[in-house]
Write a structure and sequence with these properties.
alpha/beta, binds flavin mononucleotide, 6-stranded parallel beta sheet, about 400 residues, 3-stranded parallel beta sheet
Amino acid sequence: MGEKLFTRGKIAGLSLKNRVIRAGCFEGMCQGGQVTDALIDHHRRVARGGVAMTTVAYCSVSHDGRAFEHELWMRDEITVALKKMTDTIHAEGAAASIQLGHSGFFTSRSVIGKRPLGASAKWCTFTMSYCGEMTEADIGEKVQDFVNAAVLAKESGFDAVEIHSGHGYLLSQFLSPWTNKRKDGFGGNLENRMRFPVMVIEAVRRSLGRDYPILVKMNQTDGMPGGITLTDAVVIAKAYEKAGASALIPSAGFTSKVPFLMLRGNLPVKEMSNNQKKLVNRIGLKLFGRFMVPEHQYESMFLFEGAKKIREAVGIPVIYIGGVESKTDMTKALDSGFDFVQIGRATLQDPDFVKKIESGEITQTKCDHCNRCVAAMDAGGVYCVSNERGFLKV
Ligand SMILES: Cc1cc2nc3c(=O)[nH]c(=O)nc-3n(C[C@H](O)[C@H](O)[C@H](O)COP(=O)(O)O)c2cc1C
C-alpha cells in the first residue's frame, strides 16, 4: 500500500514525476489582469515543494469572462510573461497547468464594461446584477475563445490545460437547470444542457492534438435544489471522456449559491465582508453572510464517495480532490483507483507539504480549514492567514 504515490503517472502524453497536483487556488495576484512577479514566485514556491504539477488558477478565456479586476484573461500580450512562469516552474522540476474558464452570469459588469451574459437571463445575488441570455452566436464565440486560450496556453509552455466546467462557472451554468432555462437546443434535457461544454472540449481537443492533456474540472453535484446530481454527473463524465477529455476532476458546489461546498469548514464572513468595496455590500455580508452563504461541515476526503462513482464510469484518469490532508488520504485515493490527487489548502498552508510527506518529516497537514485564505485572495493575494498569525508553525 502507498507505493504508487511517488511513482510516475501519465495524463495523455504527459508523464508526471508523482501523483500529486496542486489544485487551482485563485491567487488574486493578477492586478489589472497582468502576470505579476508575485504570481510567478507563488508557483515557483509550490513547484519547489514537490508537487508533480502546479495549476495556475482561474484564467478567463476572454476579457468578458472576469468576475474580478485582479483576474487574468488570456491574450497574446501576456504570453511572454506566461512563458517566463512556465520556464520557472519547469526549472523547479514540476509541470505546469492552467485553469481556463468563464464566469458567465457572475462576471462583474464594472470589470468587463458590459452586461454579463449567462445560459439564461437571471438575477445573481453574488454580483447583485441581472444577466442576459447568450445567443447561439455568443455560444459559438465562447467556444472559439476557449480554443484560442488553450492554444495560447500550449504556446506559452503549459504542459496541460484544465477546462473549468464546475463550481457554477459558465459551462456549469449551462449544465445546471438552476441557471439554464433555455428553450433551444442548449437547454431542456441533459443532452442539450451538455451540448455547449461538449462542443468546447471537442473543439479544444481538435486544436491541441491527440496527446495534449486536457483536464476537466466538473461537479459531481451542484449541491442545491435544481442543480445537477451525481446521476447527471456520471452521464456528463462519460460524455466528456467521449469528447476528448484526458482526465476528470470531480469537485462540487456553485460559486454564486453554495460556494463553500467545494471547501467545507469555517466561513470567514468577517474577513470576506471587510474585502467588499461598496459599504452596502460590507454591511450586508456582515449582517446576513451566515444566512446567504451556507456552511458545510468539514471532514477529510469529503468528496470521496461521489468521486468513486465518476471513477467507475470512465476509463480515463480521474483525479481525486477535496480534503486530502495526509499521506493516508493520498494512499487511500490512489489505492481506490484514482490516478492522481489534487491538493489545495494543504499546499497553501505549507508549500513544502508534498516534499515533507515524501521525506517522512510529516504525515499530515496543519491546515485547520479556517478558510481565511479564501478572503485573503481578494485582499492582495492568497496566503495562509493562520500561519501569519502564528497559529500554525510551518
Ligand atoms: C484560496 C482558494 C482559492 C480557490 N480558487 C479556486 C479556483 O480558482 N478554481 C477552482 O476550481 N477551485 C478553487 N478553489 C478550490 C480548490 O481547487 C479545491 O477544490 C478545494 O480547495 C478543495 O481542495 P482542498 O481540500 O485540498 O483544499 C480554491 C480553494 C481555495 C482554498
